[in-house]
Structure formats: structure tokens, C-alpha cells
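Sample intake sheet
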Amino acid sequence: MTEPVTLSARAKVNLFLRILSRESGGYHNLETVYCLIELADHLTVTRTTSAGVTLSVAGADVGPDQDNLAYRAATVMLETIGKPFGVEIRLEKNIPAKAGLGGASSDAAATLRAVNNLAGDTVPRHELIQLGAKLGSDVSFFLSGESLALAWGRGERLFALPAPNPVPALLVIPEFGVSTPKAYALLDAAGPHHPRGAVILNGDAFRTWGGIGRLGGNDFESVIFGQHPDLREIFEKVAETHPLLVRMSGSGSAIFGLYRNEPGRDAAAEILGKRFGTVIKTRTI
């Protein structure tokens, strides 16, 4: 009997995010830096003799199974390898949904790896990444095995970067989430995406967290803050705790700060937790 495969599916934050253009088909081309953090979901995937995929989720309501990216990833993977068996997925959710932290995409990447492992790793890495790119924009990064990467296109083209030394991080999660399609719709409604001018991304800027912070912000912040002034307030309050860098992650709604040391991060958590509810202490990878 094949032993179950247990994997952690870590969250990400976007250290900057620029929308470069909108394609005629509706997709958006972006430029971003992904950074892996310690906060993680946990999956256990078991090979079964019955066909198909079964999914049980603890810790959060993530909607119907058929809409879950882990379920869809397992289905795609089984079809790719010819459906020689079925799988049972047990998913423990710790990453907040609709927060811009990539939880669903990370779950999908971990599921692809787990099912492939149960099949004897028959699908090579480059094909696995292609499968992931079809499931979602962030999945390729989570499959890459990198902790820091510059990405462009739809997030499926990656340039791995050496990560600066790990630092403490703080996530502030509001009571509401932000739908990614709605965020893009708000961005489109705000006006056309004008081509960006010439820019040189100096490699030295990626050596420190402060250097990365000076490369730019998140294009979603202006439109999302316009819809949710309380989110702008969270951003400003996190900035007042003197982090190395503060951003909204992805299309929101999580606001994160990176700190020089744990006492600084913990002091910020004490201040922010009294006012904004859900505060998660974590760390970059």
C-alpha cells in the first residue's frame, strides 16, 4: 500500500505588483516579486482504489469541492497520468481566503506534487509547471521551489532571485475579503492601462528588503483603498510601526509589514491587534 503524502502549502506576499497591460481577451500582464512566507496550509493526499477525487477541508469554508483549486489540481493530474487510481485529499486551511496570499494556488501546487509523487513522479518538473500555469497565475511560483522570484506575464514566467536573510513578518487581515476578478474590474474601470516607461531593475536592489521596497508599490492599492477606506487606514497604521516594507498583498485584502527583528514585529502586533482583530505573526522564507 502506498503511504499518504503530507505537504505544507505556504503562503506568499507580493513585494511589489505592477499591472503592465490588458490583453484583448481580458487577461492582464503583470510584473511582481513573489516572496514565500512561513504561514501554511497542510495537505495529506492518499491513494485510493476508487476512481475520482474526494476532498475534506478543515479550518475554513472554501466553497464547493468542484471550485476548489486542490480538487481541480488533483483531477487534472489524474487525467494526465491516465487515471490509474483515485485520491483522497485532507486539507487543513490556515491561510485566509480572498486575502491575496495565494492560499488556493499553493494548495493546488502541493496537490500536483503529491499526486505526482503517488504516481512515482512520472510527470517531469517542467510539465508539472505547465499544468500549474493553466490552473492559476500564482501556481507556477509555488511549484518552482523558490522563496523569492520576479514574475511577469500572468505570473507564469519567473526569474528566481536569492532571497535576503529571513525577517519577521506581520499580516493584518480585515473581516472582509477581496475577490480578484472584482479587483481587476475596478482597475479596468479606473481607466486604460498605459504602457510603462523604460526601467532598469538593478540586481543590487534585490539584495535587501529595503531595496526591494524602493522598487515600487502595488497598483491595486489605489482602487481597493478607494472602495475600502478602512483598508487604507490599516495600511497607514502598519506603516506607523516602522516596518522595512509595507504593502497590500496581491489584490487584497491582507496588509503586511516586514520588520528588522521580532521585538519590533511583536510590538506592532500588540498595537495593531487591539484595533484590527486578526493579526498573524509569521516570517519570510
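Comment: Residues 5-160 form a domain with the Ribosomal Protein S5; domain 2 fold (CATH 3.30.230.10). The longest helix spans residues 103-118.
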